[in-house]
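Here we describe the complex-level prediction in full. Unlike the single-chain runs in Section 2.1, the two entities below were treated as one system.
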Amino acid sequence: MAAIVRLSSVFRRGVKPLFYQGTLLARPLVVPHNYQEQPHQLTARIHASQALNAGSGSKAASLHWTGERVVSILLLALGPAAYFSPCPAVDYSLAAALTLHGHWGIGQVLTDYVHGDAKIKMTNAGLFLLSTVTFAGLCYFNYNDVGLCKAIALLWSK
Amino acid sequence: MALLLRTFARQGVCLSRQHYGVFYRHAAPMGTTAKEEMNKFWAKNNKLNRPMSPHLTIYNWSVPMVMSITFRGTGVGLSGAISVFALAALVLPGSYPHYLDLIHSLSVGPYLIGLAKFGLAFPVSFHTLNGIRHLWWDLGKGFRIPEVYRSGYTVIGLSIITSLAVAFLL
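The structure predicted for the assembly as a whole is:
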């Protein structure tokens, strides 16, 4: 029970990666010591697959977690940048960072509340569509209209 | 826990059959994956239509709890607002200054404008400051309960102050 609770809190912290639907290794790595005197073949087999389990497994989830923090810090830096030196570069960076941060953030919310393989796939597809349209819209605004920095400045000058 | 018991049980089975000298390719005891177990749980839960125990209605709310869900709420809200803005940019015909002029022409009082600005600034401010608090936690710092409350109150205080400053002074 405690293991399930701990596992679910691990998921909340972002273990589930963006597009990666692979399985997590939940195989127990415990081999009791008194079984070391088993016949050589069986021990070798158990140790071999144990080594395989210990070494294999993708780093996608961990990289996703780090990516989330990197984008968060980038977005933090873009705030003052937008205020003190507004320019198209900042406009487009803001569009990208905001969309990605929001996409991953909503992804975490969906991971927490949506259950069942089919529902998870559908909602994630919908989120991907929404994020794509959002990024497209922000870039369109940057290109054809005043741009994000100017827009906020104009809004506040009211 | 159950996984551990199953581990030992399966080890026992292997041990008793060792005289056959057979290679078991996947002799390492493997239960189901976490994902499989979760799906099984939810499938069974939904099928049996189990009633949910009261949780939010009975558990005492605490400052960290409220801050956490507000953090999530502001995040979802801000993300939604950005998406709506982007969609509007793609769909609506006029330009941004045009729509700003429309809002200007509504001639709302200055205090209402200030209030609206505060309403926009506060979610951004709170989400940003609490986000920094989260990054602080990600570094492994500030987990002791008094520290959690201290950083929490700091975030709330700073959010209100910066939002007021941005809304009425900028």
